[in-house]
Design goal:
The complex is a heterodimer. By secondary structure, chain A is mainly α. Chain A contains eleven helices and no strands. Chain A has one domain (about 50-275): MetI-like (MetI-like fold, Orthogonal Bundle), CATH 1.10.3720. By secondary structure, chain B is mainly α. Chain B has two domains: about 1-60; about 60-315, MetI-like fold (Orthogonal Bundle). Chain B has twelve helices and two strands. In chain B, helix 5 packs antiparallel against helix 7 (about 170-195), helix 6 (about 130-155) packs across helix 7 (about 170-195) and helix 9 runs antiparallel to helix 12 (about 280-315).
């Protein structure tokens, strides 16, 4: 091949890769653009205050769904984050290479890859059927199963970055292992671990599938954690597939609120991490 | 390296000694790590247990059966398996080259500033909730497919059975496209990780021989990263197979096996999402769980295989360049 041809080919391939990148970003701006445009026109203060109203009646809101999502994400975080961080500590600080920790890592990968609807099925047959009703608790549990492996992975990565000399310095001073972990290693990696946890929370706030048959959804306020509860993603799904124009617009407004929440969480996570590296 | 090993040995010895508080804390973390293992086994067991009545009743014909009629207690999962596989492979065909292209652009061409911005945007693509993709699919993508893309495809490529039939919008093409968007970030991120693990000596050697950038990528980078990229693609496939909401909202939800991509179909995750709370008798519920079990099995095998591939590259080759 002569040189000019090689140069042309090089130029073509570079343009192809650049084009692929642009192509990949079109859907991002497409989705964000339409959600902002349609969402803003349907959003009002009533949306945050009112309960859903009947078929096609104006003035309904998603107040209960927003609160429901927050409650279930909170339950999931309270279970999932501590379990994930502690398991991550075990995998880096106590036992890095045995067959046991390898199989825990394997299980973590498997759990990350499980379709979220499967989690819904399992919680349905083990919690919902046993308790006899759909509940916020079941929804929160389902979400916590999704959070745990994500937090373990990020905690492990972050703890691995903490240098060994810092731990050895602790040993040299005769500090106990637990104190070295809690007072030296964890604070060093804290920002990274928090970032990982926030990203995991952001990920589950948008989950719909595991809530369909655990939390079920609710048109009213739930009075206890033992009742079916509304969730923003579930409400968006139900409204988006309904034939009524008003409800469809509400779905766009809900999507705008949900995306804002998720993007904010992502930005917070990244900013928290960035201040560390500076 | 020695030092690391020594300190690890030290930490192992420390585990058994120390105060009561130390032991309790160690046991607590051990217990949490173990809970993950238990969770995995428990999920598998729960699925098998709940699916047992359906497995016992239908046996292998469940997988090959084409009729899904809850009223007559007839359950065949083939249409759902078909819909899931077709949409996922369609997504893969689109997302794999584009994702690899993004990874190459980010890793080999972009300056570090451009890289961090675009990498962030691609991650945002992964952060958008599935139900929002579905909403966008119903009101933007599907009408566009119905009015512009599908008639166009039918006109120019209509001689291929894939592109025949009425342009409905809702169907396997819509499902595949939306899945492609959703798995693209996974493929791009993992391919990038793998490309970054290719040692710079590889690139320098190729450039020193007078290779252009593309020749460098083709000769020195891609062969080295091949199996890792394949692993990333398979992880993307795993995600596509199990994706629920967005597909449910655009695939048309009809358990038919038709060759046209324009035709409505059904996926495994979609039928579970739609019918699970409506399953009125135990066998019906059990049949739905069995479909879920099939999905679980497929994604499990894919994930394990993919992780092994990614690991093998990220760890670097043992001895020699291959």
């Amino acid at each position: 091949m002569n040189d000019r041809l090689r140069k042309y080919l090089n130029w073509i391939m570079m343009s192809v890769f650049f084009g692929a990148t642009l192509l990949a970003l079109i859907p991002l701006f497409g989705v964000l653009g339409y959600v902002i445009k349609n969402g803003l026109s349907a959003l009002s203060s009533e949306f945050f205050i009112n309960l859903p109203k009947g078929m096609g009646a104006p003035g309904g809101g998603m107040a209960n769904s927003i609160v429901g999502t927050l409650i279930m994400v909170l339950i999931a975080s309270l279970i999932g984050i501590p379990v994930g961080i502690l398991a991550g500590i075990y995998l880096t600080e106590y036992d890095r290479n045995s067959w046991f920790s390898m199989s825990v890592r394997f299980a973590t990968d498997v759990l990350t890859g499980i379709p979220s609807i499967i989690v819904g099925i399992v919680i349905y047959s083990s919690v919902v059927l046993k308790m006899g009703h759909f509940s916020a608790l079941a929804g929160g549990l389902a979400l916590s199963i999704i959070i745990i492996p994500l937090v373990i992975r990020s905690t492990e990565e972050m703890l691995k970055l903490v240098s060994h000399s810092i731990r050895e310095a602790g040993y040299a001073l005769g500090i106990s292992k637990r104190k070295i972990i809690l007072k030296i290693v964890l604070p060093t990696a804290a920002r990274g671990i928090i970032t990982g946890a926030i990203l995991a929370v952001a990920r589950v706030s948008g989950e719909t599938a595991p809530l369909l048959f655990t939390a079920l959804g609710n048109q009213y306020w739930s009075r206890s954690l033992n009742e079916p509860i509304a969730a923003l993603p579930v409400q968006i799904y139900q409204y988006a597939t309904s034939p009524y124009k008003e409800l469809q617009q509400q779905a766009w407004a809900g999507a705008l609120v949900l995306i804002t929440l998720v993007v904010l969480l992502n930005l917070v996570a990244r900013l928290a991490f960035r201040t560390r590296s500076n | 390296m020695r030092k690391v090993e020594e300190s690890e040995n030290m930490s192992k010895n420390k585990k058994l000694t120390g105060s009561l508080g130390d032991k309790t804390f160690c046991l607590l973390t051990l217990f949490m790590a173990m809970s993950v293992l238990v969770l995995m086994v428990w999920i598998g067991w729960q699925m098998v247990d709940s699916a047992r009545p359906s497995i016992a009743k239908f046996g292998f014909s469940f997988v090959t059966g084409r009729v899904w009629d809850p009223v007559k207690e007839q359950f065949g999962a083939l249409p759902f398996i078909y819909g899931t596989l077709v949409t996922s492979f369609l997504a893969l065909i689109i997302a794999a080259p584009v994702g690899l292209g993004v990874a190459i652009f980010l890793n080999e061409m972009a300056t570090s500033k451009v890289r961090s911005v675009i990498a962030f945007l691609v991650e945002m693509l992964a952060a958008i909730p599935s139900v929002v993709y579905g909403l966008w699919g119903i009101f933007i993508l599907v009408p566009w497919l119905r009015e512009t893309v599908e008639p166009g495809l039918a006109k120019w490529l209509g001689f291929i059975p894939l592109f025949q039939g009425t342009p409905l919008g809702f169907g396997m093409l819509a499902g595949g496209l939306i899945l492609a968007v959703m798995i693209l970030p996974t493929i791009a991120a993992i391919s990038r990780e793998v490309l970054a693990a290719v040692p710079n000596e590889q690139r320098e050697a190729a450039l020193a021989l007078g290779a252009t950038k593309w020749e460098m990528i083709r000769i020195a980078v891609l062969p080295y990263a091949k199996s890792g990229v394949l692993g990333g693609v398979m992880l993307g496939l795993g995600r596509a197979l199990g994706e629920t909401m967005a597909v449910t909202m655009v695939i048309g939800n009809r358990p038919d096996i038709l060759s046209s991509l324009f035709a409505p179909a059904y996926s495994i995750a979609a039928v579970i999402a739609n019918e699970f709370t409506e399953a009125t008798y135990d066998l019906y519920l059990s049949a739905l769980v069995e479909i879920g079990l099939i999905l679980f099995g497929i994604t499990l095998i894919l994930n394990v295989f993919a992780r092994v591939l990614v690991w093998s590259v990220a760890r670097g080759p043992r001895g020699g360049l291959s």
